[in-house]
Amino acid sequence: MAEERKIKQRRTKVEKRANPTTDIQPMALQPAFSYFITAKIGEGIRDRTRDDYSNTWRYFTNWLDEENYSVKYVHEITTEICRNYIHYLTVEAPKFKGHKYIQNDHGKGLSAATINMRIRALKVAFNFWQKEGFVRKNPMDNVRCQKVDEDKIESFTDEQVEALLGACDQRTYVGFRDYVFQWTLLDTAMRMNELLSLKPEDIDMKTRSVTLEARFSKNRRARIIPLSADTIKLLLELIDENKNHFPHAEKVFLSCYGDEVKDTQMNKRLKYYGDITGVGKEIRSTAHTWRHTAARNYILNGGDPYTLMRLLGHSSIHMTRRYVQMTADDVRIKHEQFSPVRKFRKRLR
């Protein structure tokens, strides 16, 4: 009798078994945050990001105490608690609470931009704790950011630009410095901290450009920013002034004592010009408004959005689009110049 041949049989289907659950490691609120922020600093986050994380956690834990939530460990924070906190920020939180200089009642309910910043910070923290085994599930997973109206970003009109520049008393050092600062913002669309970090050696006279180091850029990418001939002349004149009065200074924009100018100081100066010209009653006089003004005028003067994206230091054209908000007059003038009916007008008549 012949030996029976082996027949390959279909293997019995075995359902995939989930990994065995393990108990999480209980971690109290403050030690958990200290562990989180230490890890993030090790990853190289900027000081401003570190401060944002710290402030968000402080606001959140203070609210937990005020609402008498008996929460000791981070894994005890639920999605319901997080949603209640977002509701509080949206409806009940006093504006400018705990502000150093603003003490008056300004109403309740924070802006969507501020709330979204806190939502993102909490998402990052809980996601970190989940990976570290301190929480089973991120309670912020299903909490979405609030919708923000992107079309309210304004820029200066031509008349406002002339008023702000004309208000600088160029007979004084500070007035001339402020004039050069605003002019350079308009020419380059640089951010406040980027321009204040400028050193004389960063300016290339041959190529008429500024080399911006990655450590001063928001997205950590170095970029080269062209300068107009008029801007080069003004910057050189300011640098010569600095050499005469403050020969050991390293930056281009200095205080009247030769110290580096901080962003808070320059913000006050920009606001001052907005106040004395009346422009501040119509629109915020800030470096960010100058940046939007530069972007808008770049496009109106014939520039393309992709080159503008490089100048602004953006990583996506979507962000650049937010910076180019045309007024009704801008649209009307461009429509008059480029409407398709123009080329048919004479033919049909």
Structure report:
- There is one protein chain.
- With 349 residues, the chain is mainly alpha-helical.
- It folds into two domains: 29-148, Tyrosine recombinase, N-terminal domain (DNA polymerase, domain 1); 158-337, Orthogonal Bundle (hpI Integrase, Chain A).
- The chain contains 14 helices and three strands.
- Strands 1-2-3 form a three-stranded antiparallel β-sheet, with no helix packed on it.
- α1 (29-42) runs antiparallel to α2.
- It starts with 28 loop residues before the first helix and ends with a helix.
- Molecular shape: globular
CATH superfamily of the largest domain: Intergrase catalytic core
Q: By helix and strand content, what is the structural category?
A: mainly alpha
Please provide the count of β strands. 3
Binned strand content: under 5%
Summarize the biggest pleated sheet.
3 strands, antiparallel
CATH class of the largest domain: Mainly Alpha
Radius of gyration: 28 Å
Q: What is the correct CATH architecture of the largest domain? A: Orthogonal Bundle
